Amino acid sequence: MLNMRLAPESLQNNVNALTGTSSNQEIAFNFQEKMKKTSETNKANREGLEYMHTTGTIRFARIRQKMENELGRPPSEAEMFIETRKKKINPQGEKTINLIGALEELKSQDEADDAWDLVKKDEHPGRVRLRGRGVTKTMLQNKNKKIMDPSEQVPESVVQTISQKVEQELTKKFEEQKADLVHGFAELLTETLGQTIDPAAIARLIARTRSPEQGGSARNHDHPRSSASSHQPRNEV
Question: Which top-rank group of organisms is this from (predicted)?
Fold first, then answer.
């Protein structure tokens, strides 16, 4: 039979071969080197950018809400820029420092317009600065649309009253126009035939051209309902 007992050194070599310890260490080392290069590249890219914010992972929406609670009003764009560009340890870049100085100077002059609009006029279409990731001008316009206060709206009863009056005026004018057309047609027939048309026939023609509601009222007017006294009482058995 084969001797199954192995020396400790041979056993460790077999374990290393199975687990791939040396290979894993090499992969980890290469990964760390790659991450270092990526970090250095990102750092160089950030240094080339202008007006980098210093809020880290804190969202602009949270900062804006916090400032609104402290100020009692929504913060201006200039106030948001200054708040999100504060540097606690290392100083900011020269351009950022100059822009913050210009904004603070305009704020101290009590300008009616936002200091940010006076300083930064080179905004590009698309996303809006100082609003966080993904905020566009269209989103802001929809959000800032004024919602009418119910107290400023016209009561429904007033709207209905005005609508009824307008409808009555239009109906009246329309009926007058129809009557004029009928009379004009009657005059034309009189001139053509040489005979006078009975005014009662003209009235009946006008009545036929009326709307059903007005036609019914006209018929009731032409044939008034007899009173109860004109009927003979019927004897009940």
Answer: Eukaryota
Cβ–Cβ < 8 Å for 92, 108: no
Other CB atoms within 10 A of residue 68 CB: 12
pLDDT, residue 229, reads: 44
Predicted pLDDT at 204: 75
Q: Is 22 helix (H, G, I), strand (E, B) or coil?
A: helix
Q: Return the residue matching tokens 């101290």.
A: 108
Q: Please tell me the pTM assigned to this model.
A: 0.36
Cα-only R_g, the chain:
45
Q: Helices H, strands E: what count in the chain?
A: 10, 0
User: What values do phi and psi take at 111, rounded to 5?
Assistant: -70, 140
| Structure token digits, residue 96 | 């950022």
| Amino acid, res. 23 | S
Chain Cα centroid distance, residue 29: 53
